[in-house]
Amino acid sequence: MTAIITTDGNYRQWLVDLKDKIHRAQIKAALSVNRELLALYWELGGEILEKQSRAGWGDALIPQLSIDLLNSFPDMKGFSRTNLFYIRKWRLFYNELEKVPQLVGQIPWGHNREIVTKCLSIDEALFYVKETIQNNWSRTMLLHQIESDLYHRQGKAIHNFNDTLPPPQADLAREILKNPYNFDFLTFEKNKDERALENDLVLHIQKFLLELGQGFAFLGRQCPAVDGSARRALKHD
User: Among 173, 213, 227, 230, which residue's Cβ finds the most Cβ atoms within 10 Å?
Assistant: First the structure.
C-alpha cells in the first residue's frame, strides 16, 4: 500500500503543494512575530527619546533600563544595554516618520541594525530594505551590497515599494524563521525549545499518519537512516 501511494503522481504533487503551504505558513507566522517585535522596539525607542529629552534622565537611562528589564525578562537579550542603544538609534534615524515603515517589518532586526548604522539617509536605508526583500538577501549579502555602495551606483529613485513575501527557501526567509530576537521575544528557552519543537512535531506526525490510515508506520524519533536491507525487511513485514 505504501509503495503504491508514494509512486502515485497525484500523491507526489499533493505532497509538494502541502509542503509549500507549510513553508508559507511558517514564514507568515515568523513575519507576524517580527512585525510585532519591531513595533515594540519602535514604541520603546520613542519613549526612550522622550524620557531622555523631557525627564532629563540623559545617558543614565539606558543602562538602568536594561538592568530593570532584564531582571523582569531575563531570556530576552533584546533588552541588553547594547541593543537598547541600537533601538534608540533606529528610532532616531526614522524619527521624522510617523510610524515604522511597513517594509522594515519584513526583515530581521539584525538587518535593520546594520542598515541604520551604515546608511546616511532614510531614502538610502529604505532602498536597502526594499532590495533585501526583493532579492532575499542574507545579512552577509546585505552588508556586501552596502559596503559596495549599491545605492549610489544604481542611482535609482525610491518609490512604489512592493509588499511581497520572500520565497520559502530564500536566505532571508530562513533568517527570519531562525531570528534569535524573535525567539527571545516569545520567551522560548534555547535548551527547552528544541525538545519542545521535537515533541510537537512528533505528535503531529503521529496524528497525520493515523489520519492517512493503513500502509504507514512511525519507526521512531531521531532514528539513524534505514539502509536498503532494512527497508526490504520492513517492506516484507
Answer: 173
End-to-end CA distance of the chain: 13
Q: Which grid cell sits at 113?
A: 541594525
Residue appearing with cell numbers 506526525? 205
Going 28 to 34 to 39 to 42, the CA torsion angle's sign is negative
Helix ranges (DSSP H) in 94-212: 109-118, 122-135, 139-147, 150-154, 171-177, 180-185, 190-212
pLDDT of residue 126: 93
User: Which tens digit of pLDDT belongs to each residue from 108-117?
Assistant: 999 999 999 9
Banded model confidence at residue 203, pLDDT cuts 50, 70, 90: low
Kindly tell me the sign of the dihedral angle through the C-alpha atoms of 192, 194, 197, 201.
negative
Q: How many residues does the chain have?
A: 237
Number of Cβ within a 10 Å radius of residue 125: 24
Top pLDDT among 95 and 173 is at 95
CA distance 55 to 76: 26
Assign 72 to helix, strand or coil.
helix
Q: How far apart are CA 106 and CA 100, in angstroms?
A: 11
Q: Is the dihedral of CA 189, 194, 199, 202 positive or negative?
A: positive
Domain spans of the chain? 2-188, 191-237
CA dist., res. 163 & res. 186, Å (int)? 25
